[in-house]
Write a structure and sequence with these properties.
The chain is an alpha+beta fold. Helix content is 60%, strand content 12%. Strand 1 and strand 2 form a beta hairpin. The longest helix is centred in the first third of the chain and has 69 residues. The chain starts with a helix and ends with a helix. About 1% of the residues have low confidence.
């Protein structure tokens, strides 16, 4: 029974401590959550109020700007310099007053508005035409004109249009106005703060929340400076005004204290019941444990568990050791089994999709393979799709690994939603091959697969900074023919260049007239490029026919962009094939088709770029007559790098040129010395021997042109920071 009490006294304190900890955590999380939710609610309220105020003031600002630019009445008023004497001036004044009344009534927030001609001091308002000196707001006008305070909203100020009216608190917009052949002036629009207050008041509960609105000088526009519990503060990028908000004093404490004492009672009862339950379950469940302990000692497992240890062990340690040994042995067995199954399943998948399975696959062999390798699909109609990661080489190693781990998980998560069964594996670094089947009873395999792939394309595009292009083969009846569908999917990906990234390329669609026609265009592009790099003047005629055909067939903009991009791509490819290492400067002048809207302009610039490329290639051919010589030397070295007698003198005798000239050619074309170029060839081949063969270090040294294995090892370590033996051990 001592183990019973020991176990009971071990679990009860833990239960009590955890219960108390959870109780404290509950109240702490409640407080934190309440604070966070309150802060977030106030921040959202601030943004909402500030957006409404900004949008309202921006609309009035836009209205003022528009009227200054386009209003004939304002322009007429600013061109007049007579107040009452001239009949035309009187008519202009009348029109101006009428116009200002209409403008004021067009926006409910506008309290008053007036225009001032600065040169002669004449002011027009909806009520009269008068001079600035006799107007009740003359001190503000003077302050504005002296300080050049234009294009801004003022802080809070008092305004009354006449001495008979009660003053109002307003904010004012001041806009500078001038027209051709007219006098300069300003437009002032006053907004009553009570209107803004009414607009803001409808947005929050005054009994719980307070809001203060401050101007750019931190003066209170709306609200009270006495509020202390400010939770959120937001500033407008348009007016420079600030919104402060928070809970009124006492509200936050009341919310926290609102937790019913009933909950505390429930928690206390739960702890007491938990203690009673632990005692009951311990008493009930310890009997099998006690029997197990007896059996362990009865069968004398201590002999095996503590063969070489001291004799003063405890019974718990005996059990622990015994169980650890059993678990370790089981885990090793399961791990080895899983690794073997995973490797075999991967090999079988690759053999299946590539058509290299050596046995004649029938239903019986398939069932054996499925059971042995835990294959997730059955023997029935299937289709293969191949996912290719777009711009794979531009991703760093971390991004590549992360995305390659994520993509299969995304596919498996979505497969059941589309009533599909998938089996997939990576067939190359950037291609994931996937065998697709529908569940029993589904007949439209291709249609369901296309819907699934469309979903995946959009999902990847929306949730990852990368995209994938998918090649889809046709359905096949037997899994032994699955390589046909796989080859079709791979072939479909060959059309990725003319169809752009992030698309589904279905093999059967590539055989219709549209794709055949597009393929003919690509053939023409290749003909044009081949003629150009051979300096055959016929490329111009071919190019013009190519452009005329595009116009005649009325290709879409995306198709034209793809074809013109393909011209640049194919030129780049051919220049690299010819080993012309200056091709970057040749292609830098080529226009970007995405920036053009009209084909004639794109055609004109492309024609110029092709002509410039032709001239540069001719110049390169003339200036570097040694190009073919260095190519012959390079080819000779790649075929004979294992010759230990290779040297500059050897090459000089072989090609009948001076050794200094050979050295100069290597420096000019490859940017390195001859000896460094030769070492690079030998070291690359030696790495292959170390990885793929069982040759000794001495044999590998001789096969790559070294007479001494010591010299070979020294050079290898200097280049790769590893000895050949260390390199072989690491890679095996």
């Amino acid at each position: 029974m001592r183990w019973y009490y020991r176990f009971l006294l071990t679990t009860l304190p833990i239960f009590v401590i955890i219960s108390i900890f959870l109780l404290i955590s509950f109240f702490y999380i409640l407080v934190i959550k309440t604070e966070n939710e309150t802060a977030e609610a106030n921040r959202t309220l601030n943004e909402q109020v500030l957006n409404i105020i900004d949008n309202t003031l921006k609309e009035i600002d836009y209205l003022a700007t528009k009227e200054i630019l386009y209003s004939e009445e304002i322009h007429s008023f600013l061109r007049e310099d007579k107040l009452y004497t001239d009949k035309n001036a009187t008519y202009t004044n009348y029109r101006t007053i009428t116009y200002l009344k209409e403008l004021q009534s067009s926006e409910s927030l506008i309290d008053s508005i007036y225009i001032v001609r600065l040169n002669d001091g004449i002011l027009a308002s909806p009520n009269s035409i008068t001079s600035v000196e006799s107007y009740n707001d003359s001190s503000f006008i003077k302050k504005v004109t002296e300080s050049n305070f234009f294009f801004k909203w003022t802080t809070k100020r008092d305004f009354n249009e006449s001495t008979y009216q009660e003053g109002k608190e307003v904010v004012s917009l001041v806009r500078y106005a001038t027209v051709a052949n007219g006098l300069p002036g300003i437009m002032v629009i006053n907004i009553n703060l009570n209107s803004i207050k009414e607009l803001v008041s409808s947005l929050y509960n005054h009994d719980i929340t307070f809001i203060n609105l401050r101007d750019q000088h931190n003066n209170i526009i709306l609200g009270s400076a006495n509020e202390k519990e400010i939770i959120s503060n937001t500033e407008s990028g348009y007016t420079g005004w600030k919104i402060e908000s928070g809970l009124k004093e006492g509200i936050y404490a009341a919310a926290i204290s609102g937790i019913s004492s009933l909950w505390i009672l429930v928690i206390g009862l739960s702890i007491v019941l938990g203690i009673i339950l632990i005692i009951y379950l311990t008493n009930h469940n310890f009997k099998p444990i006690d029997n197990l302990l007896r059996r362990v000692f009865d069968f004398n497992m201590i002999t095996n568990a503590f063969e070489n240890e001291e004799k003063n062990y405890t019974d718990i340690k005996v059990i622990e050791k015994t169980i650890d040994q059993m678990i370790e042995q089981t885990n090793e067995y399961e791990l080895d089994k899983e690794k073997y199954i995973e490797i075999r399943r991967k090999d079988f998948f690759n053999e299946l999709v590539r058509g290299t399975y050596k046995k004649n696959l029938d239903i019986n062999k398939w069932n054996k393979e499925k059971e042995k390798n835990e294959i997730p699909i059955d023997w029935r109609e299937s289709v293969v799709c191949v996912f290719e990661i777009d711009s794979y080489t531009s991703l760093d190693a971390t991004e590549q690994s992360k995305f390659k781990n994520s993509l299969p998980q995304v596919l498996y998560e979505i497969e059941k939603q589309n009533k599909l069964i998938l089996w997939m594996d990576w067939v190359s670094e950037h291609r994931l091959s996937c065998i697709v089947q529908t569940v029993k009873g589904e007949v439209d395999l291709v249609g369901t697969t296309l819907d699934f792939l469309t979903h995946i394309i959009h999902l990847v595009e929306g949730n990852f900074p990368y995209t994938v292009t998918v090649g889809l083969g046709d359905r096949v009846k037997k899994l032994s023919s699955i390589h046909i569908s796989y080859n079709q999917a791979v072939e479909a990906l060959e059309f990725k260049m003319v169809n752009e990234n992030n698309k589904i390329l279905y093999y059967k669609d590539l055989t219709n007239d549209e794709f055949n026609e597009l393929y003919n265009y690509l053939e023409r592009v290749r003909d044009i490029v081949h003629l150009l790099i051979r300096f055959d003047n016929g490329w111009r005629n071919q190019y013009n026919v190519f452009i005329d055909e595009i116009k005649k067939k009325q290709l879409t903009r995306s198709e034209i962009i793809s074809l013109m991009n393909y011209i640049g791509f194919y030129i780049d490819r051919e220049l690299k094939r010819l080993d012309i290492n200056s091709n970057k400067s040749f292609l830098s002048d080529f226009p970007n088709p995405d920036q053009y809207e009209i084909l004639s302009e794109l055609d004109n610039d492309f024609n110029k770029a092709l002509s410039s490329l032709e001239e540069n290639l001719k110049l390169l051919q003339e200036q570097k007559s040694s190009f073919y010589t260095i190519q012959e030397i390079k080819n000779y070295l790649e075929e004979n790098f294992d010759d230990p007698n290779l040297s500059l003198i050897h090459l000089s005798d072989k090609f009948q040129i001076s050794d200094k000239y050979v050295s100069k050619l290597f420096k000019s074309y490859y940017g390195i010395k001859f000896v460094d170029f030769l070492i690079g060839l030998r070291m690359r081949q030696s790495k292959l021997f170390l990885e793929k063969t069982d040759f000794t270090i001495k044999e590998i040294a001789e096969k790559v042109g070294y007479t001494s294995s010591i010299s070979f090892s020294r050079t290898f370590k200097k280049l790769y920071n590893l000895t050949p033996g260390e390199f072989r051990k690491r890679n095996n």
